[in-house]
Amino acid sequence: MADQTGADHPVIHDRDAGIERLLEIMRRLRDPQTGCPWDIEQDFATIAPYTIEEAYEVEDAIAREAWDELKGELGDLLFQSVFHAQMAEEKGHFTFQDVVRTMSDKMVARHPHVFGDESRDKSADQQTRDWETIKAAERAEKAQQGALDGVAMNLPALLRAQKLQKRAARVGFDWPDASHVLAKITEEAAELEEARDSMDADALEDEFGDLLFVIVNLGRHLGLEAETALRRTNAKFTRRFEAVEAALAEKGKRPEDSTLEEMDELWDAAKHRERTRAG
Questions:
Q1: pLDDT digits over 88-129, tens only?
Q2: For the domain that residue 26 is a member of, what is the CATH number?
Q3: Which pTM value belongs to this model?
Q4: CA 227, CA 9: separation in Å to the nearest integer?
């Protein structure tokens, strides 16, 4: 039998070996002498974009209820964690088992009503408030004193805006209800129009960002996730525009051969069909 770092390590070919098999495969891929040249060249920065991409593919499979695909997508995402942990172990930072231990400790600490002596007889809202209190204490231990500390910089902009607003709201910096946010949207739209008339590119971008930020805030007050809502609308736009293209193709035409009026009519027809099926 070959050395345990080699390809003939028995666990690599044992389909029932679970996570240990995957960890050994990762070690083998990163072996400086016998591993894969591409995997060996990677570092945290080069792998991070793949990690983000895999998380989105998990979300996409869930949105499409593609459960067979979800199994594979979750595996891809798990492999990203294993990849990062292997690189961390090589540098002496931590191991995959440290990751598992940290996550397990965190879940036990954050659920005293399940793993401790606190009562489970409380609402989901109360549990959410307790969760946030525990997380605030964890941030304090990390010397994160500001209300906005710890909100990741590289989150998608809509998601980060919502998280920033939630953090600010916890310390009382928030509008009392959605009507005030709607008034602010009107104000920001007027300021955007002024910036457009001035033709100042920086001012235009600034005011456009302000308007987006307030719209995210409106969604939060309505109990909606802005990132999720926009993803849903993106998917809806894609479906309906593809229906327009298909209808034009039946006439031997492409969008660029059509008029806006004709495409609008086909768009309305696609929308009507969707609503009829849904209703």
A1: 999 999 999 999 999 999 999 888 888 988 777 877 777 777
A2: 1.10.287.1080
A3: 0.64
A4: 44
